[in-house]
Amino acid sequence: xxxxxxxxxxxxxxxxxxxxxxxxxxxxxxxxxxxxxxxxxxxxxxxxxxxxxxxxxxxxxxxxxxxxxxxxxxxxxxxxxxxxxxxxxxxxxxxxxxxxxxxxxxxxxxxxxxxxxxxxxxxxxxxxxxxxxxxxxxxxxxxxxxxxxxxxxxxxxxxxxxxxxxxxxxxxxxxxxxxxxxxxxxxxxxxxxxxxxxxxxxxxxxxxxxxxxxxxxxxxxxxxxxxxxxxxxxxxxxxxxxxxxxxxxxxxxxxxxxxxxxxxxxxxxxxxxxxxxxxxxxxxxxxxxxxxxxxxxxxxxxxxxxxxxxxxxxxxxxxxxxxxxxxxxxxxxxxxxxxxxxxxxxxxxxxxxxxxxxxxxxxxxxxxxxxxxxxxxxxxxxxxxxxxxxxxxxxxx
Length: 397
Ligand code: HEC
Hints:
Layout: H1 2-34, H2 49-82, H3 99-130, E1 136-142, E2 147-152, E3 158-163, E4 165-169, E5 173-180, E6 185-188, E7 196-198, E8 204-209, E9 214-220, E10 232-238, H4 240-252, H5 256-261, E11 319-320, E12 325-326, H6 329-337, H7 339-342, H8 359-370
Parallel strand pairs: 1-5, 4-10
Antiparallel strand pairs: 1-2, 2-3, 5-8, 6-7, 6-9, 9-10, 11-12
Helix pairs in contact: 2-3, 6-8
The structure holds heme C (HEC).
């Protein structure tokens, strides 16, 4: 009886060891292929001082955890070997409690937590102070499921309003003011800084120092409804003169070519877009149906009264619908055909459904929207060293 239970224990232990070894082997083979420090959403390839500070705390925590892990494993192996039953029928020494040990393993974790706590709190306060010294303020409004971006001018009015692709100048301290009037969202660009929630009725701020030019990918990090996973965005850090050129182009309104598509009138849009303009705006273009007011908005959200993204310079955007689709004429046509099919639950899909627009109307609108570019074309955006792959975006069939 004794012998057979011994055998069972030995066989089970051997199987467990094999299973753990197999898991490590499979993990080791798969992981390098799917995770990379260079992936656009990596938190361990920081490019700002703020993200570096966070990475330093992460590294400290990682190494301390590793020491704890190895220490505990050594303790377990030592205990198992030292206090095992050495001969058949022997009853190993029975031990109940050890005050010295208990005091030691209460003090050591307390010290470890203190070592993590002090730099964490210092970093939180330092980052909090930085929001008071901005070179540029950008207001970001979390919508379901996209991001509205305002650049307030000196007089406090937002003359530039765009969506999902946030242009900022290189070498500046940019402070994001974060708002929402619907549910809680979270603004997260892993390579630039930590997460910051957008909370209804509350203004949160996040500072970054933009030293490295390039695209930096962000994602809403707080579950916010049907298309939460498709609520992506980009921060585009570009040399200052390029940023200023982008601002000027935005303020200048659509180029003459766009006017040609609207019966020669640069301040109009194609007739088939009348319905669109109840929800969207295009700088320099009359809102055909007018009246973009969202009822019952608190005053501080006055700036975000439109239902849909501002479509100015849409031709220069790299993606559509908050990073869901690559911005190509074919994808734009698919979006206009069936927004609900591409991004479940989105507000546009409650009005525009398959059949709302004829194929000719879709083609006309696609040509018009893709023509919304500055006269001298869209500037090249430098890609940061190391990151060559883009995040996956859909190409619908
Ligand atoms: C009921 C309001 C509404 C109407 C009407 C509407 N849209 Fe939209 N539209 C939205 C919203 C909201 C989004 C954002 C969807 C998302 O990304 O979650 C959107 C997104 C878009 C986008 C992607 C923009 C971006 O920033 O990526 C384009 C392009 C667009 N709409 C064009 C149109 C056109 C053209 C029409 C008319 C045929 C139209 N919309 C009608 C609300 C509307």
